[in-house]
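Hi Y.,

Following your request, here is the sequence exactly as I used it, all 358 residues.
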Amino acid sequence: MNKPLDQRMTIDGQEVIFAEGETIYAVAQRNARSIPTLCYDDRLEAFGACRLCVVEVEGYRNPVASCTTPASAGMVVTTKNATLDKHRKTLLELVASENPPDADVSPLRGKASQEMTELFTEYGVTGARFEGKKSGTSRPDDDNPFILRDYDRCISCYRCVRVCAEQEGDFAISVMNRGFSTQITTEFSGLLKDSDCTFCGQCVQTCPTGALADKKALRFAEDPAPVKKTRSVCGYCGVGCSVDIMTKGGRIVGIQPAFDGPANEGALCVKGQFAFDFVHHTDRLTTPHVRKEGKLVPASWEEALDVAAEGFLKAKNHDRYATYAIASGRAPSESSYLTQKFIRANNGTHYVDNCSRG
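Below is the corresponding structure, written out as tokens. Let me know if you'd prefer a different format.
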């Protein structure tokens, strides 16, 4: 249960209400105050590593990390001024010294993949001021079909490691070494398919640089058509995970989890995340078929529906248990609902199942 908002503080000259236990960052976000960050994901415990979210608090000697500092009654906070902007730009220039700005980071890489690039643009960071040694070694040898491990883009924010542990409980990836030798890795530096990875894609969707990317979506990165997102519900099981379907020119090019989805809160399984190719598969039927002389042949919708109706009527001549239905796990939720409704209402039986076992 959410705690009542009953205490007051001031942010950028505006008095706001907050609840006990909220951080300065959470209060600021709720009141439309934009504070930059690279290590923050509101599904994870606050980390305070990137220090971009520092704010000034009246009476405090130094700026504090807003994501880890609890709000308190009477607190007076400044989230943006020339001093804070200079601090943030310097930090971003240090990040850019290892990962120069790249205008070609495709949004198909992942849901958060544009975060670092957008901050570089906002603060006018070029990467030239502290340009120097690089860290992170990519793994082009990892031949899994789902996740690209492009660690040349990695800034060691640890969001991928933490979401794998804190949200998924898989602990499939970790971090080794220190300094410029820091590397995101699996146990024994192996391939993802040989680790405890379940290919849920959570590491991809939280990565702020695109270092971990959706391989399947990137197949369409060269297509100049704009990406359109459509909110829907995954049809693979009964959980009801909210998803954003990415399309280009009417073709599905990727799936991203909805962070505001009430059932999944940004989580998806491997099927919900990556198993969408069947929609445009060449083997998919595009017209009804009926059986004639033992063979399935194309037919019109009118003919197919007449044959189906005749079959149901013949089955009803026996008893209500002569018919059962199995709905496809690749059918929309609405189709599955209509299937069970038809069998129960028309035949008076509960002989209904679904091939999904997610």
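The CA atoms of residues 320 and 349 lie 6 Å apart.

Thanks again,
Q.
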